Task: structure prediction
Amino acid sequence: MMDLHFSNAQRAEVLTQALPYIQQYNGKVVVVKYGGNAMINEQLKEQVMEDLVLLHLVGVKVVLVHGGGPEINELMNKLGKQPEFVDGLRVTDRETVDIVQMVLAGKVNKTLVNLLEMKGGNAMGISGMDGHLIEATFKDERLGYVGRITNINIKPVTDLLDRGYIPVISTVGCDDKGNAFNINGDTAAAYIAGALGAERLIMMTDIAGVLRDKDDPTTLIPDITVDEAKGLYDEGVISGGMIPKVNCCIEAIERGVQNVIIMDGRIPHSILMEILTDEGAGTMVMKERKE
Result:
């Protein structure tokens, strides 16, 4: 690792360059979807939390929505239960939904809250069951307790933002019969960002963004409109696991989010690069190009 020494004058210069971006985002809502494979490295996880606390302290209303697939698999393996998937979605019987609830609403959620607090932020963890934030119903009987979102009650989140907290949301849904549902984290983030009228939704993944050639990171497409994205599906450029990700970006924009970024969560401080510099990171999906 190179040892970089900045003079105080250089540090001051960097901060003043960030000023217009800080002004642009002050008081605006930014939703960050963080989960799965982007969460595995502990050092990176701490850097992501530092980025969120910094944004929080300069007046950005930060909301963190998280998943935790690898941790769910880990606990299932310990309990001798084999994870099973249909079309990329986890088959969730009653026992599995209990495990999902334990891991997401318990261990993962409170670990992230604790990290944010240690970095100097005020964080409060809630699940989609709290205040009936994420209401859902059965998505497909073959999948068991996998939920399709029917409604978002956003008040618990806005109440926390108004009181100066970073809400940390685990994507477990519920219905009025007492059922709990495993909800896809990207979809939940899109719906929550839409309900908040967020300025930006940041989807952190373990790839650079949308690549014209999936094996070549230098072919990153920096920005696409919703219409262009639909064309890239037809060309086969957006394929495999990127299809549901981009679908969620389009869903968020159709629900009122200004723009959505798919970015590589493995790059240190990629969130700060995206929001506080003109360089940006990843692929931005937007409604249409501004002339």
Summary: The longest strand covers residues 29-34. The chain has a mean pLDDT of 91. Residues 24-286 form a domain with the Carbamate kinase fold (CATH 3.40.1160.10). The chain is about 40% helix and 20% strand.
